[in-house]
Records
---
Amino acid sequence: MGKLFDEIEKLSGDSYPFHMPGHKREALGNGAFFEALYSNDLTEITGSDDLHKPEGIIKDAMDRAAALYGSKHTFFLINGSTAGILAGISAALRSGETLLMMRGSHMSAYHAAVLRHLKVRFIYGETSAISKAAKGVSAEEVERALDSYPETRAVFITSPTYEGYSCDIRAIADVVHKRNIPLIVDAAHGAHFGFSPDFPESAVQAGADIVIMSLHKTLPSLTQTALLHLNGDLVKEENVQKYLTVYQSSSPSYILMASIDECVRLVSDMRESDWRDFYERRRELSDKLSDLKHIYIEDHFSCSGAEVKTDIPEPGKMIVMPENRRDGVRLANYLRSRYHIESELAVPAYLLLIFTVSDSRKNLEVLSDALHRADEEYKEWMTEGDKAPVEVRKNTENPAVMEMWEAFDAEGESVDPENACGRISASFVTVYPPGRPALIPGEKISSEALLEVMEAEEEGCEIRGHLRAVVE
């Protein structure tokens, strides 16, 4: 075996994965597929078709995916939802046009705006009163923004969000379509929506024009596998294909494409009872966690430690909050080192756990036991003192003095945080995961944005990008 495989095997074998990818390292009925990976790793040969000009077996596979989700056309993505977001935005707008998008969008949407020299205008949603995590936007907010920016040629929103909050896509689509412009939805975390009454309807079903879904995040499929769904007539199919050829590898992995098709087959064969069983397993877990005293839970089933109803509409996400709301990273480290529980995200205020149909009852019992032990042993990891959560920067507007692409292309210089306030940002600075930028080119650097980045870095979060200002 190669060294990388050996290291990956070590990392994979000693933890319970409450994070993506959705297959959770379990075969779930398709073990023969996983055993046959190397022997079926092809390239474009006679009979194998071509992802960039699909006419045979790849086209047939994409048609099966379109039938499953109910889209007019579905494209395979082997460079993840990132490629789909880049291609979807590029296909929907001409260079220099105006895109209205959520401020908390994924970095790939910003990169599309820079590459296409788009004018970007923002919608600013709310944060959860409980977890302080970013939520979605309402149809009313979108309509007000469109009234303010009538030159908008497309709208881009994220639903569900990384933490599991959803927008009313059907209502937003109605608002957007009255302007005869397309709605693009980053549904990277919503590939499992629409298959059961226990889940929200998918963005495809709700009327979005372009929908990008990461199969690997919430369904049994390999990392980097995703789909782009196209509906309606506001965006041309040939435009989407043209830009997918730009943004996807010219040597696409047949293993990844086979994984997509295998995932589509698996989901097509699932019964309503399979989804209901998963839903009930998740309900049982939340019920078991209701007696925790120093750890609070916000998910679809419960909202401990608060007198409000949860806004998370599906069982695939759980936000875990320590009583001292500054100890999220400490709790994550404790669960990892003591009980081999690996969370999807750890920030000072909370942990994020992802659940999929691949999570067995046994794994959920292991998680329940670990959280109960951590609750009993809270003095070993929880700090004393101020228990208020670290303030999450509100989605308030920072003054933009240059278009994003202009500042990105401008000459920049590295700056120290103490000298950065008031300067024009020349770079993206992003906290990962999930990849939402705290600083973007063209905006004045604010003390709030700097504080968000510095606090995240102090807590051990990964910071991508360097603090740079436009040379004036």
Note: The chain has 15 helices and 18 strands.
---
Amino acid sequence: MDRPFRRFAPARSGTMALVGNSTVGARHATDQKRNGTMEDLANVYAIERLVLAYATAANRRDFRAMADTFDDNGRLVGMAEMMGLNQEAIVGRADIFSFFSAALEAVEYIFQNAQLGPVMIDGDEATAQVMLTELARWRGQNLSVFLGRYEDRYIRTPSGWRFAERKLVPTTLFQPSGQFLI
């Protein structure tokens, strides 16, 4: 069977192998045959859909849908701190929803573009970095541009993959100067 992806590194017990744009961990010797299977690709696809669901919800300013991408005990780290609030992490889906609702209510629009990097899967847990470009306009202010990344930890739940932790790591935030045509 010809596959649309290729393995970049041999899979051995306890090693990681790149599959497409994702890294899948071999759990034990019998998993060598599993590495790169449809199950592995399905897990990576589900995580990619989760990242996309969060970005799409942010773009729509759908704070409930943003919060629903987190596990019940999920953690949002770094965002409140970056916004000048004296809180390192928001813990729990309900508190994350409350934070998004209050902190982002004054945003007129957000255009968030997220690029998922290699995914490291280990059973029912996974990690990845998501490169982030975000354009946003707060009421009464000019457009702002944010560049950074999320350092994500994912967990598989009965409802599918969810964020166990999303840590925002800013690179830069600036307001471009110039005239906007629209």
Note: Residues 1-34 have pLDDT under 50 and may be disordered.
---
Amino acid sequence: MNTPFICHVEWGTPEPEKLQNFLSQLFGWNFQALAPNYLINMPADGKVSVGIMKSDQMRAGGSPSASVRVDDLDAMLKKTEELGGKIVVPKTPMGAGAFAFISAPDGNLVGLQQL
């Protein structure tokens, strides 16, 4: 049996277009409509897929968060603020790298890790 691993991350928000725009500009992800009220970024190389679900009952920031590995954490934190996001947890050293948490303009949390 293979070791289980995370294969998909999903955020719920009443403003999917706002979150899609932010994530696309920050990370260069391309989202496609998969179903009504559902957008997905599904990399062809089999890496983790990312979904955005429209839900008026889900409070932004109340759904699970995920962390994205980046090459330059400082540059991503600067770009986050330029795109209207907020730094929730500033750059924090950890073992061989550093992490931070940001808030997208719709309120969802996104972790950033530089290893």
Note: The first helix runs from residue 16 to 27.
